[in-house]
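Issue 218. Parser rejects a valid record. Input:
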Amino acid sequence: MHALTPERTLTDLDHVRLLNLLQRNGRAASVGARADPSAGAVRDILDTAFLVGPREVAPDVVTMHSQVLIAHLPARRRRTLIVCYPQDARPADGFVSVLSPVGSALLGLRAGDVAQWRTPDGECESAEVLAVLFQPEAHGDGSS
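Output the parser choked on:
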């Protein structure tokens, strides 16, 4: 298991797309739509992440549209999730929005890292990233 506050790695393409998503959400919030509370967490990740090109990202890094096997701590209950954009989210099917607490907690981590997030009730949750089962960039699709 790696450090509890690991360095995040993002592809430059994911970085640009997520910046655009946050800007669109910010504009929507300014005209009365509800702002997503996890947007701040994503903005912090974007501000501090190590950026690489899609061809240079390691295959064990969680990028957008990655399928990730996690183990909730401390019980080690396993679950497979896919980090996606908000419009594609279906949490019951394992598709978690990057703007959700768990989605933003996973973004940019590597296998072996521990993700931490707060539930809507304020509970602290954590899970180890056991494996990145599918990463678009590792399969030649750098346009995720």
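Fixed in the parser; the record now loads. The two ends are 28 Å apart (CA to CA).
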